[in-house]
Design goal:
By secondary structure, the protein is of the alpha/beta class. Helices cover 36% and strands 14% of the residues. The protein has 9 helices and 7 strands; from the N terminus they run αβαβααβαβααβααββ. The strands form 2 sheets. It has a 5-stranded parallel sheet with strand order 2-3-1-4-5, with helices on both faces. A two-stranded antiparallel ribbon has the order 6-7. Helix 2 crosses helix 8 (194-207) and helix 4 (88-107) packs parallel to helix 5 (121-133). The chain is flat, with a radius of gyration of 23 Å. The N and C termini lie far apart (62 Å).
């Protein structure tokens, strides 16, 4: 049986060795002269969309030439954390290991994207402290999908098992989820598309001077979600307009007013 204590130090006769490669040197290799290392921590209920968005952000950044890597909860339990269960102590150790691993990625100049339920505020605060003490940015992203939506999705069939009592201590059912009070970013994946969520994350990274300005897509698709149609129409009506007259014969109309985007 595991008996982990995150505050207990069992290693003796050791010292921290400082390397000779500075963050500025890493920036020249990985960040085109700018150090971009940080951790973007996605938290939310099972089925909220954390992993989907994390992987999408990773792909988007890499295609832009920016080093990024996703650490997924299930994936790490296949390797680094495969000896951990889901007791309170094991969950604490799980997040401690992830926090330390993410910090190493960030220190290496990589944008580390972590997708873990991480249900307890204390653990997320500890992860933030760990990064900030090392001079690294930590960005908490709450994927705020309501539990009823998560249950409807139930991609892994876990909610059904939890409701049936087959799984005990399941977050949101018989174990609490402490939602972030003041997250850096809040995403509504049940209303917004994955692409929209990606742009929200990337826009925040741009505001924090982590990624360049041209990393954000400023030209958006003409199609918008149904619940945003009226909002977009209202915005379009406030834009300057340019009258375009067609000289060739047209069966519909000879001119049109086009918003200047």
């Amino acid at each position: 049986m595991n008996s982990f204590n995150a505050k207990e130090v069992r290693s003796t006769n050791i010292r921290y060795e400082h390397g000779t490669v500075s963050r500025n040197k890493r920036a020249k290799v990985l960040g085109q002269g700018q150090f971009r290392g940080c951790t973007v921590w996605f938290t939310g209920l099972s089925g909220a969309g954390k992993t989907t968005i994390s992987f999408a952000v990773e792909e988007y950044l890499v295609l832009k030439g920016i080093a990024a890597y996703s650490l997924d909860g299930d994936n790490l339990r296949h390797g680094l954390n495969k000896n951990l269960g889901f007791s309170a102590d094991d969950r604490e150790e799980n997040i401690r290991r992830v926090s330390e691993t993410a910090k190493l990625f960030a220190d290496g100049g990589i944008i580390c994207l972590t997708s873990f339920i991480s249900p307890y505020a204390k653990q997320r605060e500890e992860a933030r402290r760990l990064h900030e003490e090392a001079g690294l940015k930590f960005i908490e992203v709450h994927v705020a999908t309501p539990i009823n939506v998560c249950e409807e999705r139930d991609v892994k069939g876990l909610y059904q098992k939890a409701r049936a009592g087959i799984i005990k201590g399941f977050t949101g059912i018989d174990d609490p989820y402490e939602a972030p009070v003041n997250p850096d970013i809040t995403l509504h994946s049940y209303k917004d598309s994955v692409a929209d969520c990606v742009q929200q994350v990337v826009s925040y990274l741009q505001q924090q001077d982590i990624v360049p300005f041209d990393c954000v897509d400023t030209v958006r698709e003409l199609f918008v979600p149904q619940h945003k149609v009226e909002e977009v129409k209202s915005e379009a009506e406030t834009l300057p307009q340019l009258e375009v007259t067609k000289k060739e014969k047209s069966t519909d109309c000879d001119s049109a007013l086009i918003p200047l985007l």
